[in-house]
Amino acid sequence: MIRSLEGYWAEQGCVLMQPYHTELAAGTMNPATFLRCLGPSPWKTAYVEPVIRPLDGRYGENPYRFQHYFQYQVILKPAPEDVLDRYFASLEAIGIDLQRHDIRLVEDDWEQATLGAWGLGWEVWCDGMEITQWTYFQQLGGFDVELVPAEMTYGLERLGMFLQGKSSAFELEWAPGVTWGDVYRESEREWSAYNFELAPVETLSRRFGEAEEECRQLVERRLPLPAYDQVLKCSHMLNLLDARGALSVTERAAYVGRVRTLAREVARLYLEQEGDGDAAG
Amino acid sequence: MATLLVEIGCEELPARACREAEAQLPMLVERELGARPDRVFVGPRRIAAVLLDVAERTPDEWVKGPPEQLAEKAAAGFAKRHGVEVEALVAREGCLGFERPGRPLAEALPEKADAIVRGFAFSKSMRWDDSGLRFSRPVRWTLVKLDGETVVGASSFGHRFAEGAVEIPVAGEYEERLRSARVEPDAEERRRQIVSGLDAIGGWSDPAGVLEEVVYLVESVTVLEGRFDERFLQLPERVVVTAMQSHQRYFPLGGNRFAFVANGGDPDTVRAGNEGVLAGRLDDASFTFERDVASGIERLAERLGGITFFAGAGSFADKSERLRDLVAKLGGGEASLEAARLAKADQASELVREFPDLEGHIGAEYARLAGYPEAVCAAVDEQYLPDSAGGPLPQTEAGKVLAAADKLDTLSVSFSLGHRPTGSRDPYGSRRAAIGLCRLALEGGLVIPRELMPEDVREFVEERLEGLVDVPVEYVRAARASAAPDLASVGRLAQTLYAERETASFGGVYTAYERADRLAGRAADEAAEQLDHSLLREDAERALAEGLAAVSVDGDVRKALESGAKLAPLVERFFDEVLVMDEDLAVRANRLRLLLDVRDTLGRLGDFSQIPR
Question: With an 8 Å Cβ cutoff, is A42 touching chain B?
């Protein structure tokens, strides 16, 4: 399935990227999406992203909730006029017969407060199952996008379950004779224990502060890419603190605001440098 | 005359945008084409209007220019700007101008269609390319046909997956051509098909009202029936219904059956897929439910100390303490006290995190599973009622008491933190809570002492009475100033005063109050602290003081009015025979005090100065 998606989107001219090297709560947070979708340069990419959502872990006991799973992320910037048709063709490429199934686009507006980002789009239903989150970005880091990108985020486990007719992700055949559960169940159990019970609250809030400070310094040194990594680290610390139940609603909002401020600073710097590059070129 | 079709083809519009488009399209068409459309078609992929008899030329148009007296300065510029000769300008009603002849409609249509597209104002809109156009979702085609002539675009499009481009040979055949391409363009007809499909299955319900959305989620209607495993019936019914309705837009059929509307596909495949999805959701909910039940409501309640109610207002454990206190003050019995302790326990449950709208119901279910008496469980269940202006009230006594306590607490806390509603912003639902309190008192018969509310909350809540008690607001305002001890008595007092307004006793009280207030109200600072009987010199004032002592205005309002009215002749005699502004200041102060006592005693029945005569 992943190979079919890679093949299809490569043919569409996408740069096939690899997963990013730090914890992300969504493929959108990968700099190949967040930063590349800012500014005036066209960009097409597709990649698998393992996403880490500490709060969603269920100790490997619930077959629908995991703190670690996979997204397939596609960005077409700017969105071509036939972007939906291209997306539907990708479903055919992984073996979904569009005539036999009931494919629906159901309103779902996307917003990510920590990144100061929002867009309008849909959840794509296949016979009632959400298989893709589909968004036309409107703002990132608080800035209006110059070329409107289309983002398609496929939920790989869901899609796999659908294609294989499995009712549990653990039973998903991940490779011949090997299930998803064989590979990830124990990791779900251990990470849930860490996320919910053991992650050190004091240390996490200290690390958050350190990453925040480092981000500021890197912004001053005009290095948006390393600075952005620190934004990602802050975001992950925040999610861990949240999973530990260490944050009241107001505290959480304050942390979200701090990450958003950083994301905005980095986006501003990235845009300035993009602008400089254009001027120089 | 000709038939005109204007079709705007979109990527899938949200239901709300469809309804907005439906409302705006007729006005936009009228503005651009001078006539309302005969038919309007709105669906997820298209917004279309058909006009059956349009003139094939646009009307002549008077283009108004500068006033005649400015002709020398401005005429040439005006003429040039509009591409006409200065000599062609004529005067009409004091201004220069010219008659621009109409032109063939087909020639004007591209810009008019464009103006219609640009005229929509959606509550949420987006950009998708560099055209600068904003719309609810991207516009992908426009088709304008004047009879058989294609003025803009090329073709329409049928069902997204089953059909492709559709030729519309003449505007008048739009509907039938789309129908043969598996698109039902008429929203009303889709609604009818969905309802008749559901009726054919029978026993359907739609408590969350998803029908109005489903009408705009499909272009082609297929109503299908599905089932889920009976083991999920162990879940609270509301959880099952919410999973079906709010997530999947299904219609519950009772038991383990549900109906849903598909836009296409092979029925068996689509049914199996949807059954699988619902089973997954219910399985997930069961998993959460079983974990909560394993914890039990007692342990959930113990965790409330760690959950913030809202910033500055402590935890849910603090809230529960305050609820018990309020319930006691409201005279609640054992069941309501116990319910107050358990009321917020479900805030610590995982199921409420998944289904926030089911707070209260889930707690009630957990209390039942823990074996609590039904009176306790029902009260927990009903604590958020009434949850809308006309919504049902709690049915049980304990439920009424708990519901009132919850609202009193939320209002007091949010007001004390400065979260008063402003304009249309009411993030803490204060208006709803206040109306709920009034209705619990008026319709629910619950005694809600006014002293339980801080003054600003009391004012706010009692202002809502003005809209709920069916008498002129002056009577409610009068009653609000009375000594009525609880909310319902304020309402009843207002009604009685209004009903009695023509009676002699009302008139007596009114006059006595008014005369006493008019004279003494203004000189209140000169009045003595207390009435001194030894200073009463005249018979008339002694009679009034004695009469006043005999008046009883508490209890039944009619009797109170009769009793109060006895003062009227005494007040009249007092004013005839006694000079209030005596030279002896002590006597004067004492007489003022007597009049103020008359006013304030009668004033326990209300502030009669609010009522115009």
Answer: no
Q: Does A264 touch chain B (CB under 8 A)?
A: no
Average pLDDT (B253-265) is 96
Q: How far apart are CA B448 and CA B486, in angstroms?
A: 5
- Closest-CA distance, B206 to chain A, in angstroms, reads 18
Question: Are residues B49 and B77 both part of a single domain?
Answer: no
- Window A:183-242, CB contacts with B under 8 Å: none
Which residues are CB-neighbours of A12 under 8 A, at least 6 positions away?
A44, A76, A86
Evaluate if residue A220 carries a pLDDT over 70. Answer: yes
Give yes or no for A40 touching B (CB within 8 A). no
Do residues B156 and B260 share a domain?
no
Q: Do A167 and B11 touch (CB under 8 A)?
A: no
Q: Which among B495, B520, B552 is the end of a domain?
A: B495
Chain A residue numbers with beta carbons less than 8 Å from the beta carbon of B310 are 249
Q: Are B523 and B444 within one domain?
A: no
In chain A, residues with a C-beta closer than 8 Å to the C-beta of B165 are none
User: What's the confidence (pLDDT) of residue B315?
Assistant: 87
- Cβ pair A100:B266 closer than 8 A: yes
Q: What is the DSSP string of B587-603?
A: HHHHHHHHHHHHHHHHH
Domain that holds residue B278: 187-300
pLDDT at A246: 80
Binning pLDDT at 50, 70 and 90, where does residue B115 land? very high
CB-based contacts of B28, cutoff 8 Å, min separation 6: B115, B116, B119, B120
Mutation choice for A interface testing from B45, B218, B270 by most A CBs within 10 A: B270
Q: Domain boundary residue among B180, B208, B235?
A: B180
Q: CATH number of the domain at A2-195, please? A: 3.30.930.10
Domain A200-280, second-level architecture? Up-down Bundle (1.20)
ipTM of the complex: 0.93
Q: Give the pLDDT confidence of A16-60 residue by residue, as tens digits.
A: 999 999 999 999 999 999 999 999 999 999 999 999 999 999 899
For CA atoms B554, B560, B561, B564, give the dihedral sign.
negative
Q: How many CA atoms lie within 13 A of A225 on its CB side?
A: 5
Q: Average pLDDT of A93-120?
A: 95
Same domain, B35 and B153: yes
- The reply to whether B48 and B151 lie within a common domain is yes
Which residue ranges make up each domain of chain A? 2-195, 200-280
Q: How far apart are CA B221 and CA B271, in angstroms?
A: 14
The average confidence (pLDDT) of chain B is 93
Residue with tokens 């997963």: A19
Instruction: Count the neighbouring beta carbons within 10 Å of the beta carbon of residue B525.
Output: 6
B88 with B23, same domain: the answer is: no
